[in-house]
User: Fold this.
Amino acid sequence: MSNMISWDANTELGSQKPPLGRWLDRQHPRLQGCQFFAPLNENAGGYAYDAMTGRRGSLFGTPLPSWTTRPGGLSFANPAALTPAQYAVFPSSFDPNCTPHTLCFLLELAGLASTYNDVFYALDAGGRTAAGWIVTIQSNFQVAVGGANFNRFTNANAIPSAGRFALAVTYDGSGLTNGGTASGIRVYVNGLEAAYANTTVNGAPVAAPGNWMLSYDDRGSGVCGGLSGSLYAVAAFNRVLSRQEIWSFRQQPFAAFAATPPLAWEEEAAAYAAVLRHLAQLCA
Assistant:
């Protein structure tokens, strides 16, 4: 029997979720520029881990977010704004407001209870959310990417109302100056770029080097809430992934996890064999 957990994004994709402890090949081509990868495969406890760095993220809420067994992930129950929220906090990997990047999410909704249902945001240095980089889903199934001085919105019904799906946001570092178009921000749903409704850019982004948060919003506006649903994986890259790379992440998000790491003695044996071949050539 397989010890892997199946992943299917609306259809069976043949990709497998690794069990806890599976070795991650950080040199894998899929991970070029990857700064953060949370497979969310802990299955229990109050912590989740970034597989790229080993840094620990903490879970918050009363009760804590729950772990799902199939396909394996972290489930948030935030039925309305301003309730005791469930969320996760990780040390930031870079400042998304000032850095070209890609954010990738595998998720499933359990309902949209608030006007804004936050999936991710990076806090500014003062710990404020409104000034950071926010990815949120609105109650009309519209995706919004925004911060203190900018917003970009997809059309309504950009994401499926039911079932698992892949969401990706890229930013190429352009278009976020006063009067700009925010065209440097792109949103992809299940590997395909969304159509956009409108943008607002009133000034340059505010630096957001603070913690990264999954779910939850504490802006206190009465219309903002955390995610109600499940996250199955989150990854962040310090570069803009191509559309093909985004599609590949949707299809096989866990391809860089290997069954076993290379053993130290195998590496030493290979080096020793190379030395012997070199000596043989010198003596020939």
